Structures are given as structure tokens and as C-alpha cells.
Input
Amino acid sequence: MSDLLTNAAEFTVSEIAQAVKRTVEDGFGHVRVRGEISGFRGQHGSGHAYFTLKDDAASIDAVIWKTSFSRLRFKPEEGMEVIATGRLTTFPRSSKYQIVIEQLEPAGAGALMALLEERRKKLAAEGLFDRDRKRALPYLPRIIGVVTSPTGAVIRDILHRLEDRFPSHVLVWPVRVQGDTCAAEVSAAIIGFNALPVDGPIPRPDLLIVARGGGSIEDLWGFNEEAVVRAVAASTIPVISAVGHETDVTLVDHVADLRAPTPTAAAEAAVPVRAELIGYVQDMGQRQRHAMRRLAQGQRDRLRAAGAGLPRPADLVSVSRQRLDHAGANLLSGLRHAAQQKRLRLTRIALNPAVLRQAARDLRLRLADAQRRTGASLVLRTERAGTVLVNLTRHFDPVLGRLVERKRAGLGPLASRLTPASLRAELRQARLSLAPCSERLDTAFVREIKNERQALDGLVKLLKSVSYQNVLSRGFALVKDETGAPIAARADLSPGQDIRLEFADGEIGAKVSGTPGKRKGKAATPAAQESLF
Output
């Protein structure tokens, strides 16, 4: 027995380890392993990632090298079930085997998480999660709409909390909060609340609460559906999201105007505490009353201070009273003095008949003299006017006679009836007959200008409708040669020719390539039908 042991080949530990390593790598060079990630703490300082894949009966060490980790489309996370693709190898230093992962795919719950993340990024890119879209909640809503299951503990918690804080009118829209129909029912409830008329028989809520209890990601998946998210985003009524526990996050939480960690917290955020509100109002009323008292007291003090600097009313009228008394005392003597003065003036100008007769004679003489001067002036002005009129008549008659002679010479037999008076009468009659014609001529001129303007506008519209610029605006282009002349056929082009392409918004240069077709005769050959550009 000892001889057999002595003759057996000896291996070092390293040789055995390398042999095992080659055997494992040759037999399992490409494998796909399904398991749950455990012990993942992120990338190591070297950039590599180390963790364990396990199931209910076994576990295997896993490593992702730095170069492979950066190429992964899906990054590993603790507790997620994945499908790892790679190769098995051994680590000789600790006599362990491990899988070197090259690709990583989600599986099971991990697939849901990947789908959730992809959907979240898509909706976030549309701007549905932006903070600018979020609206302020009403301070004291009259009607609160709740979208939840009517039989669960959630609605009882919400009603109980509202009753404690501020009793409000609550409308419950019953829905299933998990299952295949959950998303459709929740989105329909949100849309239905928004469709209620303001003054309809069913009051329209001022605030909506979308709520349900906690659960797994599968239980809460209905609140991650795109239909529910878009219904919340399109709601004109502010929405509070209260789905799951504080650690549960759904897409509805991102799009809602406020996320509450629990349904009870949603009720607290919806209304203030009634007792605190009453106390606040009473405190504000008390402060207002104190402020009004202080203001009135301050104004009273200012009035009292201003009044202290004013003189007494008796002092204000004492001087005027004294002046009145003095004037009253001097009134009687003043009247006697005035009467005496008037009497003296009357005595000096006392009237008698001789004085009156002398005054009448003087006035009569003055009147006669004025009449005499007025008559002489009137006669003189009349004579001057007559002289001027005679001179004008002397000059007017020869001129009028010459005009009459000219008219008589041109009229022949009618000249005997042509007189200055008849000419004046005919001139007046012509003026009267021409006045309506002038008015009609003005009206006809305005109407003709208007008709010509309408015709010109019609021609402009017709020119625009047949203009080639309208064709260019529909996506066509006009081909021109170097001189700007339009080219109507391919046969007018030659290879290498410089042309201009006119579009609706401008021109661009181009060069012809290929062989142009023929304008007439047989159809162009396939070689001649190739593109010119």
C-alpha cells in the first residue's frame, strides 16, 4: 500500500486549483443563472461589484468587472431577482467558485421595477412631474372627494380624522384598489369627479384624495399605470396622493399636487384643525379690538393735545363784540350827521322855474345844431356815392356792349333778343341748373373710384391665387439657371450645370449630376431616368 502511494503522482495545491479552474471554465463557459441579489453594496473602490446570487436552497458568489459594469443597461439592486449571463470560474485563493457576470436582466419583481423606472422616466420627460405644475391646496375645502375602496380601513381612517379636525362634506367614489380593473376604475373616478357641474345636483369637490393601504409592488401596481397618472395630471381639482405606507412610492405620488405618507396624513393635510382655527380667529379678533382701542386712544390724545394750543371761544369773539358795541354806539350820531349833509346839498341846488326854462332853451339849441350838421353830412355822402356809381356805369356799359356785340355776331338771328338783362338771367339760370349736375358728378366720381378699387382688389387676389409662390409654400421648388430663367424640363439641363432652387423661404445653389432625359420622342431609358441631384 505504501508503494502505491509512493508511486502516485504528486500535485501542488496551485496545480489542483488551476486544474479545477480549467475544468469549471471549460464546462460552464456560458451560463444564465436566475437568482436574487444579496449583499450588494454598490461598486468597490476598484470599480468592480461583488455580491451573491441566491435562491431558497443555494447561493453563488458573483462579480461584475468594472468594464462590464459600465456597459450594463440594468444596474443591480439589493433584493431584486435577476437573470445573470456570464461564465463560471474559481477563485483559487479561497477555493470558491463564482460567476463572472457580463449581462444582467430583471426577472420577476425586478422586471416590474425596471418597467416602473422606464415609465417614470418617460412621464417625467413629458413634464408631468414638474413642480411648476403643482397647485396649492384650498385652505378650507367645502367638499372633499375620496377615491378608494368603501369597505377598507382607509376610508374609516380618513372620515375619523376629518371628524376630529374639521367636519366636512365627503363624497366617496368606490373603486377597487388592486387587481386588473384597479387602474381603469381609479382613472374613471378622477375624471368623473372633474366632470361634475359646479351647480349640479351632486356638488363638485374642491379637493380630491386618492388613497389605499400598504402592500407589495404588485398590489400597488394599479397606481403606477399610465392611465391613472395622466388622469391625475389632467385633473382641474387639486389631488392629494395617499397610496401605501410612507416607504411606498408610486407614480401617482410624483404627479399629485401633494403626497401624503398615509391616508390619515392626507386627511390632516386636507383641512385645518377647527378648534385651532376658531382660536386663531378669536385671537385675531381680540388683537383687532385692542388695536382699535389703541388707535382711538391715540387719536383722542392727539385731539386733546391739538385742542390745548387753541384759544378759548370767548377770546376769539371778544374783539368782534367790542367792535360791534362801538359801531352801535356811533350809529345814531352818524345818521344825524349824514342827514344834515344831505339837507345842505339840497338847499344849494334848490330848483326854480327860471332855471328850468333856461336849461330847456339850451338843450333845444344844441339839438337843432346837431340836426343841421347831420343833414349836411348825409347829403354830402349821398352825392359822393352817386358820383362813384355814375363812373362805374360809364365804364361798365361799353364793356357790356362789346360783349353783347360779340355774342350777337356769333348767334345771328338770335342776337336781337340778346340783352344784358337777358344775359344775367340766363347766367343765373345756368348756375341753378348746373348745381344738381355738379352734385351728381361728385357722387358718380366717388362711385366710379370705388368700383375701380374693387376691381383692382379682385385682380390682386386673382394674381395671388395663380402665383407660383403659393405652389412653393406647399413644398415645391422652382428650378432656375444661372441667369435666373426658369427651367421647365430635364432636357434643358446638362451634367455639371450650376442651377438655383427657389423655395418658399429662399434660394439655394445646386449642381446637376447624371444624364438628363429627352424632351420629345420615346420614353427615357432607365439610365436617363436616374435622379439629376
Q: What stands out?
A: Residues 141-276 form a domain with the Rossmann fold fold (CATH 3.40.50.261). The chain is about 50% helix and 15% strand. The first strand starts at residue 31 and ends at 38. Confidence is low (pLDDT under 50) at residues 518-533.
